[in-house]
From TrEMBL:
Chain residue ranges for the region called Disordered: 289-313
Record-linked InterPro entries: Rossmann-like_a/b/a_fold (IPR014729), Universal_stress_UspA (IPR006015), UspA (IPR006016)
Biased composition range(s): Basic and acidic residues: 299-313
Organism: Natrarchaeobaculum sulfurireducens
CDD domains documented for this protein: USP-like (cd00293)
Family label: Belongs to the universal stress protein A family.
All residue ranges annotated as the UspA domain in the record: 9-147, 159-295
Pfam families with a match to the protein in the record: Usp (PF00582)
Protein name per Swiss-Prot or TrEMBL: Universal stress protein
SUPFAM superfamilies hit by this protein: Adenine nucleotide alpha hydrolases-like
Length: 313
C-alpha cells in the first residue's frame, strides 16, 4: 500500500447501493477519475443481512439471488457510464456486509482511494450508504473521498483546502492532500482555525500551558509554515491562512468564501483537552461541506475485520 508521502491516485473504487446519492457520488467520482486519468472499479455489495434480517424466516436463497442480480445490474450500469466517458472501468459484485466487503475489495485490488456518498437508501428502506460511508471512513486503509448531497456539483478540482490542528496526523493527511493536488495540478490552501473565547474550564485543564490567543496563533502559523514548505518542495502553489472561530464552521466558511473545490483532512487529531479532536471536526465537515472531502487515517493498518465489528456499533 502506498504511504502518505508517495500517495498516487491511479485507481479509484466507487461503491454503489443504487440510490440517487450513491449515483451522484459516482458521477462526481468519474469527474475526479477523468482529471486524474485514473481507472475506476464500480462495486455493488449484495447485503447479506437483508436476506437474513428481521421479517424473514431464516436465510432466503431467492432473496439472495435477487440481491445479487440487482447488484450486478447497478455495477454494470455504472461501468457502462464510465466507459462512455472514456474511463477504464471494471464492474464487481460482492456478497456480505457492505463496509467490510468494500474495504476487503480495496485491499485485494490495491486501489488508491475510495469515492463514496454519505447518504443513501437501500432495499426495504434501510439506510445504507450513509452508515456504510461512516464505517469506511473510520476503517479504510486508503484515503476516502466522501461526497454528501451538497457536494455533487460537477466540475474539475482546481483548489484543495488542507486544514490542520498542528498534529502529526493532520500533517500526514495534508501530505495525502498534497499528493492529490499534484495529480490535479491544483492550488493548495492551508488553514488553521484558532478557537476564540475558549471556556475557562478548558483552559484550566492545560497544565499551565500558554493557551492565549496570541500563543495559539503563533503555534498555528508555525504548523502552517512547516506544511507550506513541504507543499512548495513539490512544486505546488500554496496559500496559508490563520483565522478564528469554530473549526468546522471556519473550514466550511473558508470553502465558500474562497471557492475551494475539495477538502483534505485526517480522521483523528491531537488528543487531550488542549485541542478539539480533529476527528469530531472531520465528522461535521464530511456531513456539511459543499465540496468532496478527502479523509485519511493516521495509521496504515489493513484490518477489514474492524469494519465487520463496527456494523454492531
Amino acid at each position: 500500500m502506498t504511504d502518505t508521502h508517495t500517495t498516487t491516485f491511479e485507481t479509484l473504487l466507487i461503491p454503489t447501493d443504487g440510490s440517487e446519492p450513491a449515483e451522484a457520488a459516482a458521477r462526481r467520482g468519474f469527474d475526479l477519475a477523468t482529471q486524474c486519468d485514473a481507472d475506476v472499479h464500480l462495486l455493488s455489495v449484495a447485503d447479506s443481512s437483508i436476506a437474513t434480517g428481521a421479517g424473514y424466516a431464516g436465510d432466503s436463497p431467492s432473496i439472495r439471488n435477487r440481491l445479487r442480480e440487482l447488484s450486478s445490474n447497478r455495477a454494470a450500469s455504472l461501468r457502462d457510464s464510465a466507459v462512455e466517458q472514456g474511463i477504464a472501468a471494471t464492474a464487481a459484485v460482492r456478497e456480505g456486509i457492505p463496509a467490510k466487503e468494500i474495504i476487503t475489495y480495496a485491499t485485494e485490488q490495491d486501489v488508491d482511494a475510495i469515492v463514496i456518498g454519505t447518504a443513501g437508501r437501500g432495499s426495504v428502506g434501510r439506510a445504507v450508504v450513509g452508515s456504510v460511508a461512516d464505517k469506511v471512513v473510520r476503517t479504510a486503509p486508503v484515503p476516502v473521498i466522501t461526497v454528501n448531497p451538497k457536494a455533487t456539483t460537477p466540475g474539475s478540482v482546481d483548489s484543495v483546502l488542507v486544514p490542520t490542528d498542528g498534529s502529526e496526523i493532520a500533517a500526514a493527511a495534508g501530505r495525502v492532500g498534497f499528493g492529490f493536488a499534484e495529480e490535479l495540478a491544483a492550488t493548495v490552501h492551508l488553514l488553521s482555525v484558532v478557537e476564540a473565547a475558549r471556556p475557562a474550564w478548558l483552559s484550566a485543564l492545560t497544565d499551565g500551558e500558554d493557551t492565549s490567543d496570541e500563543s495559539l496563533r503563533a503555534d498555528s502559523r508555525e504548523a502552517l509554515d512547516t506544511l507550506a514548505a513541504d507543499a512548495r518542495e513539490r512544486g505546488l502553489d500554496v496559500e496559508t491562512t490563520v483565522t478564528e472561530g469554530t473549526p468546522a464552521d471556519g473550514i466550511t466558511d473558508y470553502v465558500e468564501s474562497e471557492g475551494i473545490d475539495l477538502i483534505a483532512m485526517g480522521t483523528t487529531g491531537r488528543g487531550g483537552f488542549e485541542r478539539l479532536l480533529l476527528g469530531s471536526v472531520t465528522d461535521e465537515v464530511v456531513r456539511t461541506a459543499p465540496v468532496p472531502v478527502l479523509t485519511s487515517r493516521g495509521d496504515t493498518s489493513d484490518r477489514p475485520e474492524d469494519a465487520d465489528r463496527s456494523e454492531d456499533t
